[in-house]
Amino acid sequence: MSTKEKIVQFMREEAYKPMLKEELVRIFEIADNEVKDFYKLLDTMEKEGTIIKTRNDRYGVPERMNLVVGTLQGHPRGYGFVVPDNKDIKDIFIPSQDLNGALHGDRVVARVISRGFGGKREEGEIIRILERANKTIVGTFEKSKHFGFVIPDDNRISMDVFIPKAEINGAKTNQKVVVEITKWPEKRRNPEGRIIEILGYKGDVGTDILAIIKKYGLTEEFPEKVLREADSIPEEIPEEEINRRLDLRDKNIFTIDGIDAKDLDDAVSIERLENGNFKLGVHIADVTYYVKERSHLDKEALKRGTSVYLVDRVIPMLPRKLSNGVCSLNPGVPRLTLSVFMEIDKYGRVVDHEIVESIIQSKERLVYTDISNLLENNDEELKKRYSHILEDLKAMEELCNILRKKRENRGSIDFDFDEAKIILDENGKPIDIKKAERRIANRIIEEFMLVCNETVAEYMYWSQTPFVYRIHEDPDEEKINEFNKFIHNFGYHLKGIQQIHPKELQNLLKKVEGTKEETVINTLMLRSLKKARYSAEPDSHFGLAARYYCHFTSPIRRYPDLQIHRIIKAFINGELKGGKIEKLKKKLPHVAEQSSIRERIADEAERETEDLKKVEYMSERLGKIYEGIISGVMPFGIFVELDNTIEGLVHISTLVDDYYIYDEFNHSFIGERTKKTYKIGDVVKVKVMKADIDKREIDFIFVE
Q1: pTM of the shown model
Q2: Could you tell me which CATH class the domain 3-62 is placed in?
Q3: Is the pLDDT of residue 118 over 70?
Q4: Burial of 248 (0-12, 13-18, 19+ CB in 10 A)
Q5: How far apart (Å, rounded) are the C-alpha atoms in residues 451 and 351?
Q6: Residues 6+ positions from 556 with CB-CB distance below 8 Å
Q7: Domain boundaries in the chain?
């Protein structure tokens, strides 16, 4: 047990009373020459929020002092919630007058001032800010005679930033800017700042996406030292490296990806064995051969954590020389890979597997649409074009269906949400929005990657080696309870909600398939579940109903995959010895945490660029009439989703043919006189009335 852990354990004891640092030195029998380091450790622990220092310089753990350490989540209306570090504690509501200068994203200490009785949340006040999240803020500049102010783009930061005249630095009204905070807010005073970057006028081509990139702290450019390191990587593979690997260059191996993909991480191969089983090969780019541990490339990749796929560009985790070049499994060129061969029987069980360092030469760069057309429609032209791999593709389809059935039988939850495909012109203007396809070729690759990730995770679990898992914890009983109440309105019911099994949720998804309420039940089910994350500790994956799971198949664009490639290569080559194992144990919790944080940021940025382009698209279509489905009913109005995945609001004030009463239990509005009803799943016609690009909001009205 580390000194840190001993301090926390000691302070959690019932008999403990907050002590001075000198008293702690005596208790822990710290030698004179180590006192300085011990005080430093106490300071670090205090900054982290692991322990708290009181006004009279005594130390204790927050939970024994009626305090909670966590991250503040702001709300556009000015109040906030502290999301505790301790996942066993529920979020704490903070009224706006008790934020005391804290902003969205800050790490804070809150004092609980009222306990949550009768289903109400606990209420608190911020008493300390441990770490500021927003060193810079992106927003719209407004100028007045003697000063200016910036309205943050992130509406969870509900205070404008005051800009003294001397710090305006040439910014003009309605420009998107980056402001650096020079004075943090206090109880009744806004933050102050200086303009450090002008992005362009609001509404100008490219400014909107640039503002989102800056808001989330994404960096498009790589540092010079990282680019130099990437440029020094040779294109040629040394002969001795080829000789030490399994040579698969003559095998029928190919990639299947989207038409726009440039970073090809994975290739596949298949054989039918004499015993009737399949031999599936999943060949993943060996990025770690090029990205050495602790190199500039490696540090930058960990900092980024993931590639970010915005609506109009990719911000890669690795420089393009690697991501689109030497690592990408482009056709007709030799590439270094880590191959997983799995023997799979007719029930989808992996009866044997092998992981090897290899070299491949992809025979084809296939596209999802073509292969789906070939397999689904028996397209004659495509059959001729791909005659040399036709049997392989048919075998892959067969294996895909076996694997999917096996997953389904054990209870794996498959949310089939419609995703948007947004088509932009050369100026970044959205010209079409439609549903993204998820057809047989997509499903083949999906199933093969899932079985590969599971096989690798289970193998490494039993090797008892430090590792990074992809985990999805069981849902909160309370959230499942709420969800169960909601679906009761539609005549559905979940069994065994104290310890819900994914199979029960999967059965519900099957029942609602094709019904009016399908989308809303899918959406609310997803919200009732926890978010999957990375962890250095093994745990199951609830959504996949998998005992072991990891991310192994995308090392070009995800850091956890790159990290576990390193571990696997060291393990299969017998290089994981005592010292190395101890280093990994220390390092991996940080890798998992950093990767989870960066994934969340990437998801938010991707979603926001999509929302922006959807509103932009509809702003050109005011007055147009569409058919849609009621996707949500709230006291203030009715949400309608169009076939192209765009959602807008019909405000209650626009329903003028009657006085409508909100029926919370049945999620509907009922006309008092006419008894006309609007409920979830109803097919309706709407007219586009307004598209507010700043607020990312679309307003509809109903039409007959």
Answers
A1: 0.91
A2: mainly alpha
A3: no
A4: buried
A5: 12
A6: 263, 264, 265, 285, 287, 307, 316, 317, 318, 322, 323, 327, 328
A7: 3-62, 66-131, 136-202, 224-406+434-455+561-586, 477-529, 621-702
